[in-house]
Amino acid sequence: MEIKHGKLTVIGDIDALPDGALDRLIKAFDETYLKIWERFGEGEPFDITYSIESEYKGVAYTRHGKHIGLNPAWLTDHPE
Q1: Vertex 46 angle, CA 65 and 68, to 5°
Q2: d(C-alpha 75, C-alpha 47), whole Å
Q3: Contact, 54 vs 72, CB < 8 A?
Q4: Are strands 67-70 and 48-52 parallel, antiparallel or unpaired?
Q5: pTM recorded for the entire structure
């Protein structure tokens, strides 16, 4: 499954996210990404991918600053 939202793409096991988590992830992205980019980025903002990975046992990781892997079980256990 893949969801595009402006500069954000969410892929992977999206159905494993707890209720409301996808909306909260998108909202947090919308509220912070461009502000962070304006302060620290150079050139045009690039696309970001959130990869929902049920098999990943950590909390989250990033690769090349553009790919963020997220553990949906952690989001279930920490809904805030």
Answers
A1: 35
A2: 23
A3: yes
A4: parallel
A5: 0.90
